[in-house]
Automatic annotation (TrEMBL):
Gene3D superfamilies: 23S rRNA-intervening sequence. It comes from the Bacteria. It comes from Algoriphagus aquaeductus. This is Four helix bundle protein. Transmembrane segments: none annotated. InterPro entries: 23S_rRNA-intervening_sequence, 23S_rRNA_IVS_sf.
Amino acid sequence: MKEQLKIRFKKFALSIIQLCDLLPKRNATFIISNQIIRSSTSMGANYRSALRGRSTAEFLSKLGIVEEESDETLYWLELISDSGLANQEQIDPLWKECNELLAIVVSTINTTRKNQKTSK
């Protein structure tokens, strides 16, 4: 499961990069593209870092960053959609995948916290 998620995060970031390459070249688009590429690539980087965590606290901390970056990526996708910079057919699969990844991360955080409480 961990390896599959690492692959999903990487594929998702690559899909965001591909979307950004298709956006019209304007000043506002450059800023949005920069931000969404940063947040989407950070999702996978911090997930990988979480897997290398030396403690449960470190693991949860890194997953918290993944959660934040996922939510930020959804925000930038909303802006791209609402501004008409890309069509909905381009955005919908990315929106769906980001929400699925976010749900997995939140579930993992909640399960880890629950297991941490019951082991004490």
